[in-house]
Design a protein that fits this description.
Elements lengths: L2 H17 L5 H36 L1
Length: 61
């Protein structure tokens, strides 16, 4: 096994991680709020669709 290549790989990984720009605390907070709100909207929409189709099925059958 070529340990020089393995060592270089981990050195390159460390250098890439230094170049990463991480989101600020505020960005993370805003993103979390967006995900929660969109998830709630989708859940409500799917619940309504399920309710409507359930009622339609009871009327048809």
């Amino acid at each position: 096994m070529n340990f020089g290549k393995v060592g270089r790989f981990f050195k390159d990984v460390a250098n890439e991680l230094k170049a990463v720009s991480y989101p600020t605390k505020e960005d993370v907070k805003e993103g979390t709020i967006v995900v929660i709100v969109v998830s709630m909207i989708v859940a409500i929409f799917l619940s309504l669709v399920d309710f409507i189709f359930g009622r339609l099925m009871t009327l048809i059958f």
